[in-house]
Specification:
heterodimer; A: 278 residues; alpha/beta; Rossmann fold; 5-stranded mixed β-barrel; 7 helices; B: 346 residues; pyruvate-formate lyase- activating enzyme; 5-stranded mixed β-sheet; 12 helices; 32% helix; 22% strand; S-adenosyl-L-methionine binding (chain B)
Amino acid sequence: MLYIISAIDIEARAIIKYLNLKKTTDRPFETYQNEEVHLVISGVGKINAAGATSYLLKDTLKSYTHNDYAINIGICGSLNNKFNVGDLVLVNKVVDYERKRKYYTDILVEHNLKEGSIQSIDTLHSNYEFEEDLVDMESSAFFEIASKFLSVHQVYVLKIVSDKVSKNQPLERLTNKYIDELIRGKLEEILTFTKSVSSLLKQFQPLLQQQDEEIIKKISISLKLTFSQMKQFEKAYAYFKSNKKVSPLFLKEYFNYIPKSKKERDAIFEDLKTKLYK
Amino acid sequence: MKISKQNYTNETFSHIYIEKDALNYPLTNEITSKLNKSKIVYIDNYNEIFSRKNQNPFLQKLSPSLILAVNRGDFIYKGSPLCHDFEQQNFYYTNFIVNCLFDCDYCYLKGMNFSSHILFFVNLSDYFHEISRLINEIKERPERGQGKIYLSISYDSDILLFEGIYPFLKEWIDFAEANPLITIEIRTKSTNYKKFLNYSPLENLIITWSISPQEAIEKYEKNTPSLERRLLAISQLLQKGWKINLALDPILYIGENWQEKYKEFINSISKKINLKKINAITLGVFRIPVDYLKRFKKFFKSPIAFFPYQTTNGVSTYPEELKSEMIEFVYSELEKIYNKTNIYVV
């Protein structure tokens, strides 16, 4: 599942339309989704971004597939001459400017995007130092929270440069139309990147999948295994699957077997273990 | 050094994370100029990358990044009781490179480190300074083995893999030559042996080749050279007079007919190299701190992680009976063809 967090409605509009996402909730955050993508509009600033990220990713911890990944997509200002207005940048370093915290994604996937660093600030009017390439108001909070749910190779920040920021210069006012066009212009590149991440994650799944967990659970219940036996059973199951590269589906024959005594249960359990460790 | 590239993944070292302090070292420039296509990200401290808890070291193996840092902590450590000390009183190891591009299922580094990215410490001169200090300290205390030190420099990495971008070999050879009281051991599976041909063999520099049956290599030692290539490298350096050890470590349980396979393996060694010229052979079965094994189970899919080991004093290994059987079998096969006084069991 791809999870997208954008700060304002207009940053997400083109994505919602292109992916045909349906609105699902209004509160506490506006969310949209289809079968493969969940998107939330967080509102501006770090507190909103942290809250919305947490809200959006709350179910990922239960996932067996590890196919989940989260991306903060939006516009940002450029603090130096490395990037021009309209550039799409994959952020490789996120700095929380006020808290001096730093976050780094793991860019394991091949891509053709430009890369740069970003600093997230609390307010637009503070006289901050230009320490990184880009500036926004959400990505550090997004990254900090998202990486509590996911590994760092599943968390990305993609920003499109909307304006150049200069010291002591008033900020430009950006129109909705302008922002929408910026995002639309980069949609294809964004989606090519998300496809690569998705392919990588699909290729490498954890050893035990939902089906395996179900078999272990069913047999443990049916044979009335003790807690310690269940843990041993899990290990033996994992050994079999890692060794033979297939699930021990022959175990299904034990689904409805009810042992007549503890002695019989223990004997069956030892037999099961022997088969799995063979 | 060629590492197979998966679909969708970046090249090895597509990214270099550089500590700002490491920029002051010439080695940093040398490495970055050799890897001039890599993207550079500046960091304050290598632990910002290396020690993050929410990483997936299994996936990072597909596209490891490089981290250049300055070691501000310890430079040398007392050897672990899990490693072979060759009965040396002053057995130490050091790690100026951490992690490896090989992908061995049993490697303790995968349990020890949170990351599979490769870490280079660029202040190599500080290592030499600290080791010299230790040599002098021990020299003044005759009860500590007349100042002799056995120092392994590649427990936390297969350092020969990196000689092309981190030219450390000459410096260590020069150091060994200037310090006869120290014996340096380089442990490797690589076949990057040709650089040694540029130097004269040293009495106090030992290269230990870690070797396994070809079946174990294919199954559990991804990206490593074949047994045949390793034996070829060994025979080349033996001919030139280099001091070479063999490590049959870890001996792995590779199925019910493991005896047959190990017998065949030992026969093939004796056919390909002149065992009489081998300095020593060490034997040890797979063993690992139990906490590291837990991390194996969390991330890896190899049967090595899930075998029903026994744990004693925090170390997991094969059940006692199997362990003794494995050691005794390999030992007895080896002593038929090699001087048993030079076989060491860990």
